[in-house]
Amino acid sequence: MVTTEKRLDQFPDVPTARELGYEQMETIVGWSAILAPRDLPQGVHAKLTDAMKTIAKDKQWLSMTAQTGSIPHITSSEKTREFMREQFDLYRSLGESLNIIDKPN
User: Fold this and answer.
1) Which residues make beta-bridge pairs with 2?
2) Which of 19, 57, 78, 89 has its CA 20 to 30 A from that of 49?
């Protein structure tokens, strides 16, 4: 199975987790992000945001990213922060339930 919302073009016969009844598995994904300090000057933040918007439309970047099996998803700083928090909580919970890490006191 794949944990994406839709079947992957590269593997059209491989069902999604949702199709198999494991929709909660959709939250387990590989991801990467560009991070910066909280006190990043607004001008630098704006340039970085503009650069990401440009990259998101670049056909060559999109093609090369697809060749690695990645599904590009460029979003706002706020949504990225929220996603990272959810991922942190997800993996902490998994680690605790599998006794890989200790639960906080």
Assistant:
1) 16
2) 89
CA distance 84 to 88: 6
Domain definitions of the chain by residue range? 1-30, 33-97
Phi, psi angles (nearest 5°) of residue 70: -85, 155
Residue showing tokens 């909280």: 38
Half-sphere exposure of 7 (CA within 13 A, CB side): 9
What pTM was estimated for this model as a whole? 0.73
pLDDT in tens, 28-85: 888 889 999 989 999 999 999 999 999 999 999 999 988 887 888 888 889 999 999 9
Report how far residue 55's alpha carbon sits from residue 31's, in angstroms, rounded to the nearest whole number. Answer: 17
Structure tokens belonging to residue 81: 């922060």
Contact between 36 and 42 (Cβ < 8 Å): no
CB neighbourhood size of 87 (10 A)? 15
Closest CA to 17 of 27, 26, 9, 28: 26
Degrees, nearest 5: CA angle 6-73-86: 85
